[in-house]
Amino acid sequence: MRYSISIATMILVGTMFTGCGGGSDSAAGTPVIGGGDSGSSGDAGSAISVSVGASDQITDGETTETYTQEFTVQVVDSKGYPVQGATVTPTLSLPYFAVGYWTAGSSAWTRTLTDNPCANEDLNGNNSLDAGEDTNHNGQLDPRAADASVSWETTQKTDANGQVKLRIQYLQSSAGWVYYGLKVTAKVSTTEGSATFSDWLGIPAAQVTDVSTALPFQYSPYGTEACVTPSTASASSGL
Ligand SMILES: [Ca+2]
Ligand SMILES: [Ca+2]
User: Fold this and answer.
1) Distance of CA 184 to CAs 18, 46, 121, 153, 235, Å?
2) Which pTM does this prediction carry?
3) Distance of CA 168 from the midpoint of ligand 1 (Å)
4) Which residues keep their CB under 5 angstroms from ion ligand 2?
5) What sign results for the dihedral spanned by CA atoms 153, 122, 65, 107?
6) Which residue has the higher pLDDT, 160 or 233?
7) How would residue 234 be classed by pLDDT, with cut points 50, 70 and 90?
8) Which ligand is nearest to the CA of 135?
9) What is the largest CA-CA distance in the chain?
10) Which domains, ranges and CATH numbers included, belong to the chain?
11) What kind and span of H or E run contains 207?
12) How confident is residue 8, by pLDDT bands cut at 50, 70 and 90?
């Protein structure tokens, strides 16, 4: 089953560079609910350029508890020709989350954001809960790194069109509540380029206008009150 989403599809043109070293991460800026963000890194005047664009479709994932969104990575040379055989490596980060809940109106669901954005609790990025990191006191890191994943839809190397397809999969309960950064690096021989794409995990628009069905992401799994307040909301909470 396929859905359309309301967020804008963002196309990012990455800059490029040659020689050693990848570009520095383009850190996700302060996120705005409903708006995507993108950035790029690298040195000017190089041999390859990388871009990444998101599908405007949010589909059910491999299980009924997940959603999937696809991305196309495109690599070209200095003349704009497709680069075949470049190795594309994605890295997914989850720098922010939001807390709040949706309520059903007469014709659509409406979201209430009680706190936003909340910084990822894993301050040192080691996927381990260290002293002082559990700021909402629920005994775990929020968001969990495993709330979303990235993988290749195709092979890791670009095809004759200079393209590789990626996809992210994420828990339906996290849709709209986690801000992600997808960095893609392409390398061929000693030449490398990178690009980034950042946004909130996509929400299927069709579900937001179906008030007869409960939303799988109705309550933020990270809380409904404040960034530092543990999640206590549930479908029976009466919110
Ligand atoms: Ca940590
Ligand atoms: Ca926590």
Assistant:
1) 16, 17, 24, 14, 37
2) 0.81
3) 23
4) 134, 136, 138, 142
5) negative
6) 160
7) very low
8) 2
9) 59
10) 2-96+143-208 (2.60.40)
11) helix 205-208
12) very low
